[in-house]
Structure formats: C-alpha cells, structure tokens
Amino acid sequence: MNPCPVWEQKSGRVYLFFICVRGHVTERQQIVSGRNAARLCFICSQDAGYSWSEVRDLTEEVIGPEVEHWATFAVGPGHGIQLQSGRLIIPAYAYYIPYRFFCFRLPYKARPHSLMIYSDDLGATWHHGRLIKPMVTVECEVAEVTGKAGHAVLYCSARTPNRCRAEALSTDHGECFQKPALSQQLCEPPHGCQGSVVSFRSLEIPDGCQHPAGKDAPTIQQSHLLDSSLRLEPEARTLSESWLLYSHPTSKNRRVDLGIYLNQSPLEAACWSRPWILHCGPCGYSDLAALEKEGLFGCLFECGTKRECEQIAFRLFTDREVLSHVQGDSTSPGRNSAPTQN
C-alpha cells in the first residue's frame, strides 16, 4: 500500500517504499485501537525496474520502540526526492499517541503528523525526522528550493482537514520543520486530498508578460513562510533559483477539476498562481514529475467523467504551456488537454 519511489542518481538504484499491513487491519481500526499493524518496507531495482530485490522490512531499524506511540503510519503516496547533498527523502505521516494514562494508551488522542524518512548513505541505512507539529497534517510531498544566495530549503506541502493546504519549510534537510502555515491560495475539499509538488529551475519570462501570481514581479510579502530567526539574507527569501509546480483538485466542495499551480517565489507567502485546469470533472490523487532538460512535466492522476474516478490518466506538458496558461485564462483547459489514458 501507498507506493513511494525515489531514484538515487549516483548508483542508478530505484527504491520503492510502501507499507504492509498485517491481518488486513484497516487504518481506522488501528487508529481506534491504538495498535499499529503497519510495517515499513521497500524493494529496490538496479535495472530501471526490470527486476526487483526481495522485500526488506525497515520498521525496527527506522521507527524502533517509538512505534508504540504510533497508532499507524504510512509513506507517500507519491514520490520521494534526492537532495543536492545526496540525502534521500521519503515523505510519510504517523498517527501519534501523545499521552498514556496509568500505562494505558489513549488512542482517541491520536493525531496525524507528517514527517520525513531519510538516508545519508545512498540507501544503506534509514532514519526518521521529527513530526511536523502542532497542526494536523497527513499525506505530503516535498521539493528542494534554492535561493539566489545558494541557500537550500526543503518545502513541504501537506494534506489537512482544514479546507486549506499546509506548507512548512526545513533548513536542515528535512529532519525538522518550522511550524506549518495554512495557505489561503491552495484549498482543500472536505477531508482533504493528496497533492503533488516538484521543483525546477526558474524560467525566463518574455518581456511584457505578467507575473503568474498576478504581479509584474515578485515583491516582499508582509508574511514570510520562513521564520525570521533563520536570519537569511533578504535576497534568499524573496528571490529564488527554483520554482514550484503543484497539482491538486481546485474545488473547496469536492474532488473535481485537477489544477496545476505555479509558484515563482516559494520562500514567500501567497505567491501561487491561479490554477490551470488540467482535467475538468472528478479527480483525486496525482503525482508530478519534472524533466528539466527537455522542458517537460508529467502528471499521473485519478480522474473520471461522471461522479467517480474510474480511470488513471497521464498528461505530458511543457514548461511554456504552464507559463502560457497561468498567465492567461486559467479557468478552462487548453488545447490538446485530453489526457493519455492507461
């Protein structure tokens, strides 16, 4: 369940993380009882997915005794990333039980929080970072953002039940994150939905084109995502060598109309563009991939034509399409917007 791959560039190895659940116990049953039945597992491939290793269980190595405080947990779903430092990151979340009463767990107190699982030795050993608190956050994805001054920051976008997406930043490669903030520009349907985010090198905007967020150029916002205590130089906060692309349903009421959002100033608050609607109608989970050298993006997503998501589709589009659509009419699909069906 919950597949989450990451590619290690130096060795060419692909790690596919997932969870196995003993006895077909549902997530809800684990949360209610406070008894975890999930196991953290992965397989790897050294030939681009043609063959795979045996399953390896990492639960004891990564979580250890702390699993007693996790009613359940999961990775992804979506993709992991490799940072410029070489660190491999797998996004995850856990339902944490903070209190005990006379040695008895109080499972109804379990609250979900996102966190990262990481490796600094090309996948030989794995560890987990701190829970992102205090806000309730669930499925998440991360992207590395580099500012003009060369500062690398890890951006996290997480699902919430609060009708808005949660955003958080880390300056220590994902071991801990600042207090998350709700984005008023990125809505969530009731109970939320998984979303995807990728970073890529900034593009040159043709003269006379408007900034996708509706401005002529990025400006300093009154509210920064970055905590002022980090003491980054102003240019590191306001200018970025990396942009972000984000996919998610655009309706506050239900999972419909999959949108693509662009952010040219990821280290600032309120800099997301209006969405380009990639698919009209029912939609759900999605996952983005960036092919920077080719100027291409891919989006794999759940979609449908009636009331349900009865198919999985794939759409390939260019970076110039993104700029064109978010600068123009972002409320309707563009030309050739029909997805490739799988």
From TrEMBL:
Ranges for domain Sialidase: 1-183
Superkingdom per UniProt: Eukaryota
Record field: catalytic activity: Hydrolysis of alpha-(2->3)-, alpha-(2->6)-, alpha-(2->8)- glycosidic linkages of terminal sialic acid residues in oligosaccharides, glycoproteins, glycolipids, colominic acid and synthetic substrates
Assigned EC number: 3.2.1.18
Keywords tagged on the record: Carbohydrate metabolism, Glycosidase, Hydrolase, Lipid degradation, Lipid metabolism
Family per similarity comment: Belongs to the glycosyl hydrolase 33 family.
Protein name as it appears in the record: exo-alpha-sialidase
Lineage summary: Eukaryota, Metazoa, Chordata, Craniata, Vertebrata
